[in-house]
Design brief:
By secondary structure, the protein is α+β, with helices and mostly antiparallel strands. It has 15 helices and twelve strands. β6 and β7 form a beta hairpin. α2 runs parallel beside α3, α2 (56-69) runs antiparallel to α8 and α11 (346-360) crosses α13. It starts with a strand and ends with a helix.
Amino acid sequence: MAVSSLQALNVIGLMEHIDEAITALGESGVFQPDDVSNFYDNVQDFTHLQTKNTFAEPLTNLKAALNQTKRSFPLTDVSDFSPSVEDLENFSAVTTADIDALIDKRETAAAKLNEVRQNLSVTSHFVGMGVEIEKVLKMKYMKARFGRLPKDSMSKLEAYRDNEYVDFAVCTEDKTHCWGVYFAPFDVVEEIDKIFEALFFERCNLVSENETPRERIEDYKKEIPALEANVKKAQAQLDKYLDENKEQITNYLSKLEELYLYASIRSKALQYNNSFIIVGWVPTENKKQLSRKLKKIRSIEVDFSDAKNELDKRPPVRLKNCFLAKPFEFYTEMYGVPEYNEIDPTLFIAFTYVVIFGIMFADLGQGLLLSVVGILMWKIKKMKVGRILFPCGISAAIFGTVFGSVFGFEHLLDPMFHALGFEEKPMQVMNPENTNSVILTAISIGVILLIVAMFLNVYSSLRQKTM
């Protein structure tokens, strides 16, 4: 349970060497710039070198467009690639527009396909009506309302039996709703609509052209293959564009990332007469390497200070955990990382989460299945939660073995226990005689966790000297 050790870095030099210093800091990949005003009280006579990062907009737009494609473009070395700022901006604008147009074409085709599929699903609930729905909707003296009514509301219609127009003709049913139609004269249709609205009636718009529902369904089925082909064609066009321009996109994206980083450092730097000053943070393990690089630059002076001595400047935090606890940084970051001099609770979270999950979800078969699902989510879908599901599934499988549960079967492992010399499985959690023991064990675990959490809080307070 720790955070990475940091050093506060102070770089001072002549203006003629600032580009070399920024390049060295940027190439390190670990330097995080900070405001000079956080380190120095009197900066009134200092001036900013740059107030706006000109690469922020083209980089943001290009990355946003590429993110929609679900394709990865790993950054590459572009030290020999030197396009002008105008070229970078033009490439970003043109590429973003091209990708957006191709994605819009794909999304439009997909939206049309989904609309037809939805209409097909809705219309299928009215196949029992052998009438042309459009003619029903255009009746001269009556209004027809097609839609669905929750099954719970069907019984409530009895309360309106004195009203001859409150009647719902059911065509089909599913697990939760009845699909059908009700009719009302023009002069009372608003009143009837309000009654059915109170019963949670949901109207559906049936699109038909002088056809019965069954005839319309056949038309929808004929439309779907062509619409699916349109979606595939649009996706193929997008893939072709990305494949043909992959190298160029990678180079420009990498260059924009590089220049954006350099500009971010420059925007934090301040100038005083013919000198500049840059401050920031760097991991302790990179201190010597970065120091050697900077000292090779003429006129550059470098000063390091341990972040423990700079707590008033609120050092950034980078969590540092073993490979077992690292996936659970997802939860720590979700609720807020600790401050630099606080305890990192990730290891505590990982241990308690995995153990308690295993106890609650104890099943050998389901635990192993959950682990496999977690691996697939992590490796294929790149989902962080997949790395968490894997150890949780293993824990569930271990406790499931102890409890003797396999896919809900409580005695499937009895032969194994007998072969190991046990008369029965070690934990009979389903036995009523053990109910009190299970409850007391659960309470004890909760009490232990609370006590440990309180001790961690006390220790953290002592480190911060707040008690």
